[in-house]
Amino acid sequence: MFISRSISRLLKNSASVNAFTRQNFCAEALNTATVPTVRTVKDKWISRFQTENIPEADASITNILAHVLKVQCLSDVNDRHQETKLDEAQLAKIDELCECRLARMPIQYIIHEWEFRDLTLKMIPPVFIPRPETEELIELILQQIDAEKELKFLEIGCGTGAISLSILKHVPKASAIALDQSTLACELTLENATQHDLAENLRIFRHKLVDKLPTELESHKFDMIVSNPPYVPSRQLLALEPEIKIYEDLRALDGGPDGLTVVKAILDIAGRHLEPSGVLWLEVDSSHPPLIEKYLEEAVPQLGLKFMSSYKDLFRKERFVEIMKV
């Protein structure tokens, strides 16, 4: 009788343990099935971005995921991390950054950095974001200079420092002076230069782009001047994408009535401060190259500047101008 009761109790306890184990197993399986992965979160936000008409939906969420996961290569988000599970802190951060993108904030400002050629640059609103076309300008410049020789150059409108720092990195004997009218841009250029150990050969001045060079630089001559100046005609500013007109510094975009106000000021500086055979490189609106050529020939021949050539960007638009001091 005692043995019978013991066996009955044992079977009852065993059944309870089995029921508890099954219940836990089901709960764990359910939790595992509902833990968000990179793939599910990416799909969710692509759909949301597309519904809200956010440009480049896939690229936007991929960059945000790479930033949160601390992944350097964007392709790894899709190739190696699709089934990576995301914890609550990561999900909260992704949601926070995606809400910024829904507000049309540029992805560069959201993740606070961006790749420019072989440099990772810090980005802070409203400092002008370097465009892919400007990488092409750097390639043109590097193709036409001797990287082993000394080079004294001036950048007008440095923004994040993308142009100056790219040249300094690939031309070890170069020295640069960079100007910008924005205090924040000057500070950001210096921070990026320091981050990449390029600050030693760089001097930065806060200065209005349409003015003559600062008094300290009045006697300076340069082998090269380079600029991606404001060149958008004022009347077109309101038609720009929200990412640009809401978040970026419009002073870095507004080129005056015809888009050439700052360009003409830079031509005047080039005429005064380029060494003989020195070169001015400009990134401009695709309608500007023939206007600049005509301006140099007819309006200001006394500057001693010769229009050499214009070059197309990756979109097959005339974007870059080469001018020589004769």
From TrEMBL:
Keywords recorded for this protein, A-Z: Methyltransferase, S-adenosyl-L-methionine, Transferase
Transmembrane segments: none
Pfam families per the UniProt record, alphabetical: MTS, PrmC_N
Broad enzyme group: transferase
Cellular component per GO, a single term: mitochondrion
PROSITE patterns, per database record: N6_MTASE (PS00092)
One MF annotation (Gene Ontology) recorded for this entry: peptide chain release factor N(5)-glutamine methyltransferase activity
CDD domains recorded: AdoMet_MTases
Protein name: peptide chain release factor N(5)-glutamine methyltransferase
Organism: Aedes albopictus (Asian tiger mosquito)
